[in-house]
Amino acid sequence: MVTIGLTGNVGAGKSMVAGIWKRERGAVVIEADWLGREAVKPGSMALTRLVNRFGREILMPDGSLDRGLMGELAFAKQENLEALNSIVHPEIIKLIRKEIEKAQRESDRAVVIDAALIVELGFENHLDYLVVVDAPKEVRMKRMLAKKKMDQETLERVMEVQIPAQRLKERADYVIENDRDEKWLEEKALEVFDRMMADSK
């Protein structure tokens, strides 16, 4: 089985590429964002450590993590972000490894790890390929604001702390520029996927 890391900064469209690979080529997709939620679910060691570090105000009434507030605290100070990452990242890595093992038992084609933080996690060295999806900053910002998941100020802080796209591209085996329409993106994504499959034989 071929293991592919798929990454890109906020708004680049990496999850769209993952969806294309899953739909058109039958790839198994592991969504790190979902695993991030699993890592801090009620009763987890990571959530307990976050509460010890940031206080009980980061919890919702039902005891789950208030991800919006946690994000605001994390991006307000570099030391907060580092503390969050030091607690959560090791747990996400454990969950990714488990999901890869599970996928390898169920499929013989490809498993895709859809994760914004592959490079920050230091996980790209454990994969066969690293693919970076990118788009101009103004395009990415427009996409994210349209989703209304965060305001412009928060979005700008998130963009500031992410690894510059150029550095991601320097580490990539393939780069997909997502600055055109969806039809073009699908064609490019499938071209890259098929090339990786051919190269891995």
Can you describe this structure?
The chain is of the alpha/beta class and 201 residues long. It has a single domain (2-195), classed as 3-Layer(aba) Sandwich (Rossmann fold), CATH 3.40.50.300. 59% of the residues lie in helices and 12% in strands. The protein has helices at residues 14-25, 32-39, 45-54, 67-76, 78-106, 118-121, 137-147, 152-161, 165-171, 182-199; strands spanning 2-7, 28-31, 110-114, 129-134, 174-177. The longest helix has 29 residues, at 78-106. The relative contact order is 0.22.
Quickly describe the structure.
Helix content is 59%, strand content 12%. It is of the alpha/beta class. It has one domain: 3-Layer(aba) Sandwich (Rossmann fold).
Mind sketching the topology for me?
Elements: E1 2-7, H1 14-25, E2 28-31, H2 32-39, H3 45-54, H4 67-76, H5 78-106, E3 110-114, H6 118-121, E4 129-134, H7 137-147, H8 152-161, H9 165-171, E5 174-177, H10 182-199
Question: Main β-sheet, in a few words?
Answer: 5 strands, parallel
The first-to-last residue Cα distance is 10 Å
Taking all Cα atoms into account, the compactness measure Rg is 17 Å
Corresponding CATH superfamily: P-loop containing nucleotide triphosphate hydrolases
Please give a handful of descriptors for the protein shown:
alpha/beta; 10 helices; Rossmann fold; five-stranded parallel sheet; 201 residues; 5 strands
